[in-house]
Write a structure and sequence with these properties.
The chain is mainly alpha-helical. The protein is built from two helices and no strands.
Amino acid sequence: MSEDDTERKLRHKQYLKIQSINTQAAAAVILFVAGFAYMYWGGVDPSEAEWYIAMSISSIGFFWYIINRIRMVIAKRANR
């Protein structure tokens, strides 16, 4: 295997890792929006269990997105 092949495989592996993080970030945004939308348009009161579930889903999605953004920064810095 030549040096170019090794470098190309390394770049491809890094590309796949970044794509995986982007996919997870998109899933996190969908969770956040779905939980918030259900809480906002679902007509649930803050005293109901559904409200707590919707808030939990929104919170999980939000924090998962933040963690993925941090992972993205770290992965891109590693590529330099």
